[in-house]
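Input (structure):
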């Protein structure tokens, strides 16, 4: 939450403290989650290289425990961060991995629309317009279905999430963020 609200220093401090504790107690999956949160904070600070490095460490921990829990959103972010650095092959590979576990997007993330929105952006950046359109439509459908079940005030906040605003702009006006974010 601190990273989302621009409190990068606080996010880093909380993450480092949680990381030390997870390592002391030997909680590998918690450590993986903390690394993902730290990666997000670094990306919000604009350090995509560090975000990628932390994410790779998280993936390694998840691989060792054979857990893919929560990795869908992380893979989506990982793809965006690679694209932001101009590494479209790595971004495309992350999207391929993301979509290969399509059922995990619904089962293992709070933000399935974000996952498909990230995929749409990467496909578009890679010049794969059919795939971009398909992913955009899936993201839109998921966003609208989730919004439909919310109370009006919550729906307004949900649709105001930055990636939902960007997604809606791409759908309505063909305006896409560039580079992918």
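Output (sequence):
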């Amino acid at each position: 939450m601190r990273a989302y609200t621009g409190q990068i220093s606080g996010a880093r401090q909380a993450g480092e403290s949680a990381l030390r504790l997870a390592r002391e107690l030997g909680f590998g999956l918690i450590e993986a989650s903390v690394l993902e949160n730290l990666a997000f904070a670094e990306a919000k600070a604009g350090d995509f290289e560090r975000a990628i490095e932390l994410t790779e460490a998280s993936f390694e921990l998840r691989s060792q425990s054979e857990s893919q829990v929560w990795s869908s959103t992380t893979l989506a972010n990982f793809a965006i961060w690679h694209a932001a650095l101009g590494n479209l092959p790595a971004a495309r590979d992350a999207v391929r991995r993301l979509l290969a576990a399509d059922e995990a997007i619904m089962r293992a993330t709070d933000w399935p629309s974000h996952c498909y929105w990230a995929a749409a952006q990467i496909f578009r950046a890679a010049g794969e317009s059919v795939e971009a359109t398909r992913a955009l439509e899936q993201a839109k459908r998921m966003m609208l279905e989730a919004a439909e079940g919310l109370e009006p005030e919550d729906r307004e906040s949900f649709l105001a999430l930055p990636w939902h605003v960007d997604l809606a702009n791409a759908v309505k006006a063909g305006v896409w963020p560039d580079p992918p974010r």
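Notes: The two ends are 18 Å apart (CA to CA). Residues 125 and 178 are 9 Å apart (CA to CA).
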